[in-house]
Amino acid sequence: MTRRTLFDKVWDAHRVGGEEEGPTLLYIDLHLVHEVTSPQAFEGLRLAGRTVRRPDQTIATMDHNVPTVDQLAPIADPVSAAQVEALRRNCADFGIPCYGIGHRWQGIVHVIGPELGLTLPGTTIVCGDSHTATHGAFGALAFGIGTTDVEHVLATQTLRAGRPNSMEVRIDGVLPAGVTAKDVALGVLRTIGTAGAAGHVVEYTGSVVARMSMEQRMTLCNLTIEGGGRAGMIAPDDVTVAYLAGRPFAPRGEAWDEAVAAWTQLRSDEGAAYDRTVVIDAADLAPFVTWGTTPAQSVAVTDAVPDPESFSDPAERESAARALVYMGLTPGTRMEDVTIDTVFIGSCTNSRIEDLRIAAEVMDGHRVADGVRVLVVPGSQQVKLQAENEGLDRIFLASGAEWRDAGCSMCLGMNPDQLQPGQRCASTSNRNFEGRQGRGGRTHLVSPPMAAAAAIEGRITDVRRFRARVGQAVP
Amino acid sequence: MPLDRSDVDTDQIIPKQFLKRIERTGYGPFLFFDSRYDDSGAERPDFVLNMEPYRGGTVLVVGRNFGCGSSREHAVWALQDEGFRAVIAPSFADIFHGNALSCGLLPVTLAEHQVAALIDLAGEQPGVECTVDLEAGCVSAGDLRFQFTIEATQRRRLLEGLDEITLTLRGLDTISGFEASRPRWMPDLTRAEAAP
After folding, report:
1. What global pTM score does this model have?
2. Of chain A's two ends, which shows fewer C-beta atoms within 10 Å, N or C?
């Protein structure tokens, strides 16, 4: 019996018979839909006279276009409004459950799947969005697809896909104080680069990962795509089972018992071979901040903007030089001397209750720096409600931050939450590409506590030093 | 058309404000939007898409990891709507590569030095013609001749113009057979006990 990895097991279990050669026909257990990448897919179904094959395995939400303030009012941008309305109409026409604007389960698609107990170990999950990798935290094989594939999944509940290679990223040791899952993810990207995992499904292993909560695992898997990875996976364990128990769509009764029995078997066999292995020592990790225009272009917060000439690879040198011009940064500038005017705490990377708790802990009793605009955007209406029950909203509001409704918000400038040209943002999101948060906007990716500290100080800040200075314990 | 940049991400290819459209066509004017136009909306004269004789080119030659970032298929549509039929690079991001094949925009992978040679040639002889022959698996431009491969079933599908959904639906019985054997704990949207 060959020894198989977690990825091998889930892939093999979903191969639909019948293909002799070429890409595998993979069965899709759960299809997540949002308003941006679906309109043309539904239109394609209509034009061909086809229907959605499994509406009972399809779920839709609205997240990219939705305003995060006055959410129930008509959307001001007519093009956004049309796209949101198209999803509502398509779901009604094709019989797909839609947790859209106004629904108590509405939120960022990669936040609501897990919290509703729809994301399950050992399943295949797809969505027309690259951060679908997030769901891999549960030991699901989850990846992003384009609109043509969305149409194929809607029509057939299958996907044709070439088998990726497997890659292990093992993170061992003990995380230094102040280092969060976001920093682990940024640390991985620094090591492997923006295409380091291209063509691979990454499995995260090691003692650091085993100690992570589900939300922390989601943050880690979320950023796999930024390293070019096809998907990111973490084997399910007791933490996974405890998270899922009792959630609205989690299996119940005997089905639950069968599920747990299956999930506890679901891990890579001892001695299974990966096509590539990367080992990261937790001691090498620190609170990171990006300086450039890819998520891999980061340094420890205590370091300085690098000199492009220090990169040995000519393409990297050129990319760094270009990035520094766009970002308006000079080599040698200490990151902690970089002032910011905007802070965004949100996105499918970091907008869950644990992220909000730690940000609130840092900000409690302090005022946001003059001239700094701070947006705190919970990942779903359920997260919002829970945060309000815990009094986190009052902490954010008392500090001078804005407390919003759920949506993708400032992660990508598709809704009113955008940067103006030249503005500089400390952001808990996943991408710092040119123009990502708004044309000419400058993004520095950080963890939630780092973003919170930056909000108070008005500049990129080492949250460990901030917390020591103001007498907070560093977790 | 040579574009000597690596890690060209999908936000560069088509910024997010254009993803709000519900149409499948008309994305051509938005291709490389921020590189192509300045803040006043005027064409930037030093961007290759705006320069003669590269303007109107149908083969894009670009650096490694092309199309990284988002899964937005709109990036492919923008390239196709603007007339491109093939992209040549040392490597492509996985999702972009799959989207390109789905839409019939041919992603051609060549070695770094071969791509560099093509970019150099386009610079030295602006307007030189480049031919990409899927049947023969060959790129030719000036005196350069490079072989490339496309996965066999994709190549056949592209050459024969087959519709992928139609192909899959021919095997519907097999799909139903697979479904009958799935464990009962799999995701089920009819399952929630608390009605929304």
Report:
1. 0.92
2. N
